[in-house]
């Protein structure tokens, strides 16, 4: 599963409350019901009329989430402790000669205020945004020049292959730290907190991540946490089976295009990015609260321990730096779309549970 | 009054016996007109006048048949030759232009985006002009296609997609002006529609129009064997009739038959020579026109694809890679290299096909432009590999010494070469078609005259028996 579930829509909250009131006494009975539901879900093909009614279904999803958490607890804490020491990876980057002496970073060029080319920013329209600021900070720290960066624009589903193939040194691209991904790449400590949210036209009957999505077409980016969450939830019965989640696109912003053209009814993406989309179209809005808690991290090669430690050190300094650090970048890029107060977006104090 | 009773009595008695013998004859099967005619013919064949009548009829029939078949076969060929010149070749060129305009419009739109900032007036004009050309040529293609043909379906599809595409680009422009990256997303969507739906449809249309052109050539060039065979048969029959006449009467010349022989000879010669000239002209127009035009169109399309991929290399910024064997390449740059190699091959082929200096010089110039393009492309890629994205961008879409200049020059030279080859084609195919002018009508008139001559000639002999 991807991140911990916090609060959902009003209906879901009520459902969960009722479920928890059953207390320990009902656990055994509940387990039997869960098993039955699992059999039902596995062997009976999802018919179009099945609703998410009944606590047993919600309960089953919760059991599943808990099970996933057993396998991988708090993925955002599975990182190495900070250190400024140079290791093999950093040395290799520093050894690059002449024009090539640059940090190669995978970024997005389509996320408004995160990483994008502003056509009105000047003649060259270079990349800018919250992620880009962080990249410049990392380059300054490692290579002594904030501009010593080679940007590569990476589609959502290419982030992990790009790191594994060594095409980039790191990916700074609104990338959620989750259990699946920490098997493939190493993450830094979290630098931003967000959660999946629903985006739909203001006039739409969709109210949030709930039954109002029944029969609606939902767009997500290929290889995104949004897609894997929807898929898992639909399997678990948390999301109405009639919701059509088949539409996937290379980038979350392509979803806004499909939404405006009426090819889909709603978009699910990280709240931070959904807010960026809403900022580009006044006729759409975020529906309901975030239904997951997720953290963005800088992704690096699994073996690049020295680089992970270094980036964690940079992040500690970056968050402490009030004049020219995290807070300043938030104020510059995100306060307009996510609100003046950054508290909701600040990740908790980092923990470094990974040792090797 | 004594005769009075006898008068009414007389007609009455002979009437029944007169009818009586007819009665038993009726059950006999009626003889068909054909059988009677055959009998008459058999009877006639036993006398010389009868034989002459038969010979005259057969001669007239042969000559008329020769004229009719000639007129029919040559009408078909002339129509096909006219189609080659005025319909299928222009449509095949139009289809190539549709492809070119669409691909160029897409490249112009994406270059505008690549440049960052707002699009320049030049790139906007180029885009608008391309869209206009595509729309005009589509209308022309639609007017010239059969309503139920597969090309009509393809044209309808393109007509439906063009406004959709334009709508997406307009939205991209609007958002771009507001500084929102969703403009870029619209452009990507437009690009996807172009690459995955419109260009394949345009390529399909081009192929279909080319097939039609080949079919028209196929209809125009085969020898009219039926007409030639009938012509030879008619001449042989006329010769035989005159030889027979000579043997029987010792007279050498029969004016009517000589006139018939002369007209049939003229028709046969006209047929063979006219068709051979037309065939030569059409074959020439194919070898030196259509083949050159096809290769040049292919070269133009390859250069457009190369330019599109060169731009996409910078748009994608290394996002997509392709593994070939052990090596990993940037997917778009790999495609660029494939396209530019294809361009080189087509240009070499076009150079070989060009048969005069004015056809060869633009091709040679295009080869030079391509060489320079490759050189500048390598330098731009080198900058991009080093992480100097802005420098690479400048070398690809900049206003000075950029690869865009080379692409434009290649395109311009290919346009010149195409215009030249088109003139060549029109001249050769026009000569071919003109060689058939009047042949059908002439053959028909001459055949009627020839048949009349044969009948008159035989009639003159026949009159000696009266």
UniProtKB/TrEMBL annotation, chain B:
Keywords from the named record: Membrane, Transmembrane, Transmembrane helix
Signal peptide residue numbers: none
Region (Disordered): 1-31
Biased composition (Pro residues): 8-27
Bilayer-crossing regions: 52-72, 223-241, 253-273, 435-458
Protein name: Secreted protein
